Amino acid sequence: MKKIQRVNKYKALLVMMLPMVIVQILNGYLPLFGLTIAFKDVDYSKGLLGSDWIGLKNFEFMFASSDIWHIIANTIVYNLIFIVLGMAMAVALAIMLNEIRNRFMAKTYQTLLILPYFLSMVVVSYIVYAFLSPQYGFIPELFAKLGLPEIDWYSDPDLWRPLLVGIKMWSSVGYNSIIYLATLAGMDTSLFEAAMIDGASKWQQIRYITLPMLKTVMTVTLILSLGGIIKGDFGLFYQVPMNSPQLYPATDVIDTYVYRSLTQLGDIGMSSAVGFMQSVVGCILVIAANKIVKFIDSDQAIF
Amino acid sequence: MKKKREINSVSARTSVVLHIIAIIGSLLCVLPFLLVIAISLTGEESIMKNGYQFIPSTFSLEGYKYIFKSGEMLFRAYANTILVTVVGTVAGTLIVALYAYPLSRPDFPYKKFFTTFILILMLFNGGFVASYILNVRILMLKNTFFALVLPSLGGGFYVFVTRTFFQQSIPYEIIESAKIDGCSESRIFLKMIIPLSLPVLAVNGLINIYGFWNNWQNCLYYITDDKLFTLQYVMQQALRDMQLMKNLAASGSAELQLSNITLPAESARMAMVIVGIGPIVAVYPFIQKYFVKGLTVGAIKG
Amino acid sequence: MKKRIIAGVLAGVCGIMSAGCSSTKTAEETKTTEYGDLPYVELTMVYPISANTTQDQDMVTEKINEYLKEKLNCTVKLEALDTSTFYEKFPVMISSSEEFDIGWVNSSMLLQNVSRNAFVELDELLDKYAPETKELLPEITLEGVKVNNKLYSLPVYKEYGYGNSYYFRKDIVDKYDFDLSSLKTMRDFEPMLETIKANEPELTPYFVESGAMEPYIPAEEGEKYYFAVAGLPGSICFDPETEKFCNRVETEEYKNKYRILNEWNKKGYINKDAITVSASFDEIIKGNRGWFVTTSSKPGVEDSLSTSVGTEMIRGYDEKSYVMTTSLMGSMNVISTTSKNPERAMMLLNLLYTDKYLINLFNFGIEGTHYKKVDENTIALPDGVTSQNDTGYAPGIDWRLGNNYNLYLWDYEKPDKWEQYRSFSENSEAEPLLGFYVDTANIKNNIAAINNLSTSYDMPLTAGVGNADEFISEYDQKLKEAGIDTIIEETQRQYDEWKKSK
Q1: Residue of chain B whose Cα is closest to the Cα of C212
Q2: How many domains does chain B have?
Q3: Cβ distance of C117 and A242 shorter than 8 Å
Q4: What is the pLDDT of residues C102-146, one digit of tens each?
Q5: Does A11 reside within a domain?
Q6: Dist CA A198 CA A192 (whole Å)
Q7: Which of C175, C216, C194, C196 has the alpha carbon at shortest distance from C291?
Q8: What is Dmax (Cα atoms) for chain B?
Q9: Is C460–A246 a contact, with Cβ atoms under 8 angstroms apart?
């Protein structure tokens, strides 16, 4: 009885949530049956649901080669750098743009900084190639003019670790800073006024008011991005280095490795197995991260 | 109040440093774009011979001519994309806000359930084939307008961002006092929450606009009727076909013996980038105005 | 302009509004045809076409249906997808068991999906509903596309031998008086490469690009020829003399080939961007990067190639052409297990092979609109049109459906094109593995691992970078770790069984 009363009390709020619930059921929950493909020997004449179960056989291929551990490590390290550095740069950029008083200039910078987001990784790969190609590249030509030693960019993996991080930052920071800009815009300005009257410097205001304001959004972003920790951005790692085999030590991540292994075989069970594994690892990390956050500051945890 | 804010700003020296950093960053972002524009205006032969150049050695509009060749088809695709973007953005932004708002209310008792409900889907998905089966064989969305919108709705991440914004920027007390004054929940949402959360709604809107505008996969898989083709799909497809054609060019197939023309592959590719994103980049400055300060509760309360 | 935009917008809106309600189907009625009493059915066909050249598809489809209604009391729904779309969409259609009747596949699509029961077995249907086609198709082609001795697909009837040839720029060959007829081994290339290196600074003597194939010409005289195995990575090969499968990377022939490429790279014959650059023949020749290209040795390629790259190309060193499983499987039609009317689908396929009117309608469109007839078998573009792409119907499906030998010839094509194709095919020898298919169910993990290795080693070796001997021994080592021996063993076992059953 009490339960019904409670539902009644929040009826309006529940109705508000309904459209999203429907969308999620259609887009997300119903297709979840696809998860079973990872454990099946697919036979199209029996349909996906009717196919025979084969246990973990679809997962085996991933661990058939000893290279996999190196590749998993690659994927995780890149993602950690992307998450931490990406967030630091996006927050710094948002605060910086927020402090630029000339609103016209600030808006212009914002608009320009977001441009790279619109270039697909394929186009980015052509641009990068234009700069680095051993035949026509601007940089090799410049090096030659300056009499600097010749570098073959597409065969030296060590150059690509920083390069890939740089390209990722370049393409995403402007876009990611939008969220922080919006949060800053929603801040209560009276706090700053009070701080100023109390004689706080600009840096102190940022340190003690702005950053704590952004902390919640940062924590949410951090926890949720851990969900994708062993997923690799395929375009970035495959297309941008032009799939150059000599760069694999630096550019190989799970998604590119699996792609190269499975394109010939075209096995839907095996590719589903990879996705399943990535989800499970992501899920564990998100729960763990949330637990840790809860332990430190229970207000910040997301669930 | 405006004056006070002017006083509370960084020193002139810091300001110069900030501008310099921002200018360098902006240049880094703009230069590749200028390169794209330059390539789109370069003659194909010259690209083959000299590679990409910032200043075209031969000027040509072939790339643009090639993509505008399909004239009416392109305009229709533009129209479809605009419609999809508008409908998708309104729907996408609204459902996220409607879902995030109850989650932000401290008194809402089902928070945990509805949070987990979203979170599970952010971690697990059934894969594309499963979605395809559902959309095509059960919901019968093939060749319908909904196929261009529905599969892209409902970003979980933005539910959390929006919820956080509501929690931080709209104190519960004012909601409570409004309730005591006899306001209904829907009225509170429409008259208080929405006006107070324009910045985050703008972010959601922007992200939806970009998402729907750039999406071509929905069209690739769910649409075969060319009346429903979207801009990005038409471009993608022309581009990839052009590449395939070039690769086949010598295989001796009859159709290709007639095409004694150089397909402007490179310049057309870049021209497509420009034609495809031009209008959408122009949207950003209009959305930016919602990122301004002073719309906060503090200002209203004061 | 403004009007055009508004019209476009309106058309778009109307399109979206009306797309929801599809037209109602004609009532099912049975009709007596030359194949007996047949109830009316609609068949769906899925195949790839070239882009943006089929504005008049609806008009042609209507004509096709008019004819088919008469012949088979059926109509077709054509899912003629743009080539690039097809390759992404068709696999999804198959994996989601979406209903269709006839589809176009290549070898990998066939092999990937046959083991998953995506396609109907055709032996019986062929006997019963398409005896003319069975008569028509050379036995070797039907045998060659069988999987486990069962027929799942009908090969498009066209030329069926496969070999490669080098095509050289004639002006360069003439300028330096190269003797292409003496070209027999990779070593014979060397004086030419040397000359180009010394005299043509713009040209790369031996241009390699990221999709390049390895040289098919033997490295040195008297080398053994190994055969590739359909469905397995290239590092597994078959020795026809001993009838044993082996690790190709360990053969002398393989090592020689890459040592020479390695030498060439060191001498500066190969372009620096070999691994990363991707270039079509157009780009290689028109862009003045290379002076020869490698592609199929079938008749007439030099003509179409010359037209497409804009300068005369001549061939040198034709590889011996074989009838191979992979080449036979290059273009086939299948019937889906989701089809409700496989019999009628087979009848339709039969018409595509035997009915001259129908296949030409599919391929060239409507007479008088999309082409005009010059004589019985020759056609020309309609007056005032300069390219087939401008006629409104140029699907480019000549090699994807039915029977090539029933097609009209364009007035600019050689009148003996089909005779040339026939004699080319008949002069091709059957490869020893023709019709052999490896069931990969138990060795999938090894294959995945080896496919991955191929992508790491093949290209650097072909570009001749680094030290070939070191690369090869490292490659060999990794192949062993990835289980190449397991694959060889399993393949050998299956081969011996297959041989016995024959």
Answers
A1: B247
A2: 1
A3: no
A4: 999 988 889 889 988 999 999 999 999 999 999 999 999 998 899
A5: no
A6: 10
A7: C196
A8: 80
A9: yes
Q: Which residues of C touch B49 (CB under 8 A)?
A: 287-288
pLDDT at C18: 39
pLDDT tens sequence across A69-81: 999 999 999 999 9
Considering only the beta carbons, identify the residue of B50, B102, B126 that sits closest to A33: B126
Q: Select the residue of A109, A124, A136 nearest B22 (Cβ to Cβ).
A: A109
Q: What is the mean pLDDT of chain C?
A: 88
Residue B283 lies in a domain: yes
Identify the domain containing residue B279 by its residue range.
62-301
Q: Which of C84, C95, C310 faces B237 most closely, judged by CB atoms?
A: C84
A184 in any annotated domain: yes
Q: What is the ipTM of this complex?
A: 0.87
* pLDDT (tens digit per residue) in C75-101: 999 998 888 889 889 999 999 889 999
Greater model confidence, A16 or C304: A16
C448/A47 touch (CB, cutoff 8 Å), yes or no: no
Identify the structural domains of chain C with CATH numbers, from first to last. 27-157+325-417 (3.40.190.10)
User: Subunits that touch chain C (at least 3 Cβ pairs < 8 angstroms)?
Assistant: A, B
Output C48 or B226, whichever has higher pLDDT. Answer: C48
Q: Contacts of residue C210 in chain A, CB cutoff 8 Å?
A: 242-243
Quickly state the pLDDT bin for B246 (edges 50, 70, 90).
low
Element (H, E) at C421: helix C417-426
Task: Please name the chains neighbouring A, where neighbouring means 3+ C-beta pairs under 8 angstroms.
Answer: B, C
Closest among C298, C341, B36 to A123, alpha carbons compared = B36
Share of chain C above pLDDT 70, in %: 94
Give the Cα separation of C332 and C137 in Å (integer): 13
Q: What is the CATH number of the domain that holds B188?
A: 1.10.3720.10
Distance of alpha carbon B81 from alpha carbon B229, whole angstroms: 8
**Residues in A touching C273 (Cβ below 8 Å):** 133-135, 154
Tell me which residue range forms the domain holding A162: 66-119+152-296
Inside any domain, residue B213: yes
- Residue B242: its chain C contacts at CB < 8 A? 51
Q: Which long-range contacts (CB under 8 A, 24 or more apart) does C89-92 make?
A: C89/B220, C89/B221, C90/C46, C90/C48, C91/A266, C92/B128, C92/B129, C92/B132, C92/B221
Chunked mean pLDDT (size 10), chain A, 303 residues: 79 93 94 93 86 92 86 95 96 91 87 88 88 86 88 91 96 92 80 83 87 90 92 92 91 92 86 93 94 88 81
- Asked if A143 is an interface residue toward chain C (Cβ–Cβ < 8 A), one would say no
Of B28, B112, B129, which has the smallest distance from its Cβ to A268's Cβ? B129
d(CA B96, CA B106): 18
Q: How many CB pairs under 8 A join B and C?
A: 171
Q: Which residues of chain A make contact with C445, given a CB cutoff of 8 A?
A: 60-61, 64
Interface contacts A/C by beta carbons within 8 Å: 103
Per CB-CB distance under 8 Å, the chain A contacts of C117 are 43-46
Within chain B, how many helices (H) and strands (E) appear? Answer: 19, 0
In a domain? residue B87? yes
pLDDT of residue A2: 74
Give me the DSSP letters along C349-395: HHHHHH-HHHHHHHHH--BTTTBEEEETTEEEPPTT---GGGSS---
The single-letter code of the amino acid at C92 is V
Contact call for A189 and B206, based on CB within 8 A? no
Which chain B residues are within 8 Å of C303, Cβ to Cβ?
257
Q: Is residue B11 part of a domain?
A: no
Q: Among C84, C295, C298, whose Cβ lies nearest the Cβ of B244?
A: C84
Encoded tokens for A150? 């010749």
Q: C386 φ, ψ to 5°?
A: -105, -15
